[in-house]
Amino acid sequence: GLTRVGGLAGYSVRSEINRCGAIAEVTSIHSTESYAGGLIGFVSTNGKVSNCYAFGVVTSEEEASGCGGLIGTILSATISKSYSTRSDFVLGFAFLKYPFGFSSYL
Predict the structure, then answer these.
(1) First to last CA, the chain
(2) Which DSSP string do the residues of the chain spell out, in sequence order?
(3) Staple partner for 5: which of 1, 65, 87, 94, CB 3.0–4.6 Å?
(4) Sign of the CA dihedral with 103 first, then 29, 97, and 65 last
(5) Strand 26-28 vs strand 58-60: parallel, antiparallel, or unpaired?
(6) Rounded distance, CA 16 to CA 77, Å?
(7) How far apart are CA 71 and CA 93, in angstroms?
């Protein structure tokens, strides 16, 4: 996908996501404002994610704004009882191991 990509959803605003999972290979090909996550690319504005998981590889072909094994970017959201079973992702050619790419007001 281009900017906001995830195994379940690319973009989640004011949503409650509960009891779900994604087994996916996620790739972002946009160089700016790129948010890629194994479950969700971007979660914001009082969003809630609970009891969820992601398994797979998250790839960004360019330098990403937020890229993570579970969620790419979190702004003003609540994440609970959720995990990534394989939290390594590829950013260009470097492997990193984080469940979240960028967090603010978590």
Answers:
(1) 25
(2) --SEEESSEEEEES-EEEEEEEE--EEE--SSS-EEESSEEEEEEEEEEEEEEEES-EEESS--SEEESSEEEEEEEEEES-EESS-EEEETTEEEE-SEEEEE--
(3) 1
(4) negative
(5) parallel
(6) 10
(7) 20
Q: Which amino acid is at 69?
A: G
- What is the pTM for the complete model shown? 0.80
Q: How many residues appear in the chain?
A: 106
Q: Which amino acid is at 81?
A: K
What is the C-alpha to C-alpha distance for residues 58 and 84, in angstroms, rounded to an integer? 11
- The angle subtended at Cα 76 by Cα 18 and Cα 31, nearest 5°, is 95
Among 49, 104, 101, smallest CA distance to 80 is for: 49
C-beta of residue 3 within 8 angstroms of C-beta of residue 30: yes
Residue 100: Cβ-neighbour burial (10 angstroms; 0-12, 13-18, 19+)? buried
